[in-house]
């Protein structure tokens, strides 16, 4: 691959195969059709998942763009039953408070069609939990390193992560108990990392049901200029 120095920094030539318009259109439609089958699943089978699958999924998430290429994320991959139980216990404690006093009635009403409540058995049932942490700043040789657009960068990486989970044939649920500080304590993460998202991952149970909900149409989500 050719290299070139631009403003004092080494660059490499970027090459991507040129596809026909027909192939590009087909790929875009196929990917949409595949991702349109993605659903949030809260009932997991106990079958083990090869760790290579999870490692490839996390590597895919790490290809996301980030501010100044600082890659301000850490992915904690958890299969230890004892740690999963600790996380479930702590999450349910926070969720019970949220459902009883923190969440307004409108929020709880909006959640009713989804069948959620403070109980989160999937935090133990799923073979893996992925906890995504955002790095507010980096640390190199004991010194702070500035990070940029952290929330945006980690959010994009989580989108890649969710897509990769589905593409691999697995299912997931995005869980955001609030507050989530207990995850930092249980997993002993450093001060510069803050919990961002908790994602149980695995195969769905043989007989799994999800809410009969519809996604917005293209005309509802796009404005052409």
TrEMBL record:
The keyword Oxidoreductase applies. InterPro entries: Nitroreductase, Nitroreductase-like, Nitroreductase/BluB. Residues 37-203 form the Nitroreductase domain. This is Nitroreductase. Keywords: Flavoprotein, FMN, Oxidoreductase. It holds the Pfam family Nitroreductase. GO terms for molecular function: oxidoreductase activity.
């Amino acid at each position: 691959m050719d290299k070139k120095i631009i403003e004092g920094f080494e660059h490499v030539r970027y090459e991507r195969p040129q596809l026909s318009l027909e192939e590009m259109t087909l790929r875009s439609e196929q990917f949409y059709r595949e991702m349109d089958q993605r659903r949030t699943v809260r009932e997991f089978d106990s079958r083990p998942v090869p760790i290579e699958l999870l490692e490839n999924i996390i590597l895919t998430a790490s290809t996301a763009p980030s501010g100044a290429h600082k890659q301000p994320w850490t992915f904690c991959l958890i299969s230890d039953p004892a740690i999963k139980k600790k996380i479930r216990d702590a999450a349910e404690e926070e969720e019970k408070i949220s459902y009883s006093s923190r969440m307004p009635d409108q929020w709880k009403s909006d959640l009713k069609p989804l069948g959620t409540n403070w109980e989160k058995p999937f935090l133990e049932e799923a073979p893996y939990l992925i906890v995504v942490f955002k790095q507010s700043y980096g640390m190199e040789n004991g010194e702070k390193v500035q990070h940029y657009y952290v929330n945006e960068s980690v959010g994009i990486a989580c989108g890649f992560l969710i897509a990769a989970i589905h593409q691999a044939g697995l299912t997931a649920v995005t869980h955001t108990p609030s507050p989530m500080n207990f995850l930092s304590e249980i997993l002993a993460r450093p001060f510069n990392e803050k919990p961002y998202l908790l994602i149980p991952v695995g195969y769905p149970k043989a007989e799994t049901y999800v809410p009969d909900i519809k996604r917005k149409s293209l005309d509802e989500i796009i404005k052409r200029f």
